[in-house]
Amino acid sequence: MKFSGPSAAYAFAGVRTGRHNKEVLLEIGYTEEQISGFEETGLFK
What we know:
Elements: H1 21-27, H2 32-40
């Protein structure tokens, strides 16, 4: 299949990976203290 015309240009690729880690972890039952511990150990890097 061949398409004619210019290729699409993307100005925005979406949110940064891991952007919503804290919100998701809170929703599934992790505490603020547990999440802080994850951040301190570098789990989200």
